[in-house]
């Protein structure tokens, strides 16, 4: 449940924003430094944000910067060509590139009602394979404490995941198929990617007016929320009408391959048993081999078998549960 927002012009907005999105990441980063977790929480919104509270700044300035080393840059094409030879069906689709975020009080005194603005550029699957999934992916990193600077040469497509809670208080997870490209056989939350083409975007449009830019940003922001509903429906087979409106709870980045993913929370009016029945007819059921509806304690035990970004998603969910207890 999202709490009522203060007046955007009120001085209380800054403290509200800090509570919603800024305080927890700094604590999490300290914990990560101490324990070397396989993920980093880039943004945490423990009370959950609705679509009106999340905006997007989609701009060419957030695209990947080519690596200055010619050999590293050329390896992108070499790796992709080798992959194509092994699997001619690979498709080089467009993806949104995550390049950080900002808070309203950091954006020239804006009175926009949104509490978080995501900075997104454009990338593609080919560049992801050649940078983040490159065997020498660490060569693409820049020594910096500033995350967008550190990852400026990587594709960093923004994935998404949903923590779906059943009517009998179970959490839905999937075991990935052995045929998928990343982390076969691992447990994951339902998810995938927001898709630029679903928002009508195939490239950046130079020379667009301010009104046109705002319209594009709005479409991309809507796709952030619409895509996670679409992914859940396609992967576990439940009807969209059985799901609550998604709440954005933050962004986790896997330390291996510096892979970012946005996470959302949704409740479902169906029981674990009913969802199992829906799963048998899921459109994208081939991407996973099993659906499990587990308790929080059971999920704690299985979390070690999750990719780092999804383990971070679980951490974001637990922060949300803690925040709800406090409120």
TrEMBL record:
Concerning PROSITE patterns, the annotation shows:
NUDIX
Q: Which domain of life is it from?
A: Eukaryota
List UniProt keywords, sorted A-Z: Hydrolase, Magnesium, Metal-binding
The UniProt entry, under InterPro entries, shows:
NUDIX_hydrolase-like_dom_sf (IPR015797), NUDIX_hydrolase_dom (IPR000086), NUDT22/NUDT9-like (IPR055295)
Q: Which cofactor does it need?
A: Mg(2+)
Q: Which residues form the signal peptide?
A: none
Q: Name one GO molecular function term.
A: GDP-mannose hydrolase activity
Boundaries of every Nudix hydrolase domain copy:
155-322
Q: What is this protein called?
A: Nudix hydrolase 9 isoform X4
What organism does the UniProt record list as the source? Punica granatum (Pomegranate)
Q: Which gene encodes it?
A: LOC116211994
């Amino acid at each position: 449940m999202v709490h009522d927002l203060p007046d955007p012009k009120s001085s209380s907005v800054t403290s509200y924003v800090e509570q919603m999105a800024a305080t927890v990441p700094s604590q999490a980063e300290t914990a990560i430094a101490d324990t070397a977790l396989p993920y980093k929480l880039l943004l945490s919104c423990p009370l959950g944000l609705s679509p009106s509270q999340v905006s997007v700044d989609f701009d060419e300035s957030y695209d990947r910067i080519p690596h200055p080393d010619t050999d590293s840059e050329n390896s992108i094409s070499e790796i992709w060509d080798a992959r194509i030879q092994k699997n001619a069906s690979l498709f080089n689709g467009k993806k949104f590139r995550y390049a950080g975020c900002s808070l309203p009080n950091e954006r020239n005194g804006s009175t926009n009602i949104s509490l978080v603005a995501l900075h997104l550029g454009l990338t593609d699957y080919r560049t992801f394979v050649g940078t983040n999934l490159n065997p020498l992916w660490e060569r693409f990193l820049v020594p910096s404490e500033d995350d967008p600077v550190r990852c400026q040469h990587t594709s960093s497509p923004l994935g998404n995941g949903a923590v779906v809670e059943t009517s009998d208080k179970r959490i839905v997870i999937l075991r990935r198929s052995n045929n998928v490209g990343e982390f076969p056989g691992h447990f994951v939350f339902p998810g995938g990617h927001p898709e630029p083409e679903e928002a009508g975007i195939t490239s950046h449009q130079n020379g667009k007016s301010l009104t046109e830019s705002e319209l594009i940003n709005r479409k991309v922001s809507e796709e952030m929320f619409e895509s996670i509903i679409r992914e859940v429906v396609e992967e576990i087979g439940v009807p969209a009408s059985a799901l609550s409106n998604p709440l954005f709870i933050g962004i986790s980045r896997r330390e291996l391959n510096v892979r970012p993913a946005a996470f959302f929370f949704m409740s479902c009016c169906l029981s674990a048993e009913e969802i199992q029945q829906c799963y048998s007819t899921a459109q994208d059921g081939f991407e996973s081999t099993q659906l499990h509806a587990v308790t929080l304690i059971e999920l704690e035990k299985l979390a070690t078998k999750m990719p780092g970004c999804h383990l971070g998603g679980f951490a974001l969910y637990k922060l949300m549960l803690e925040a709800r207890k406090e409120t």
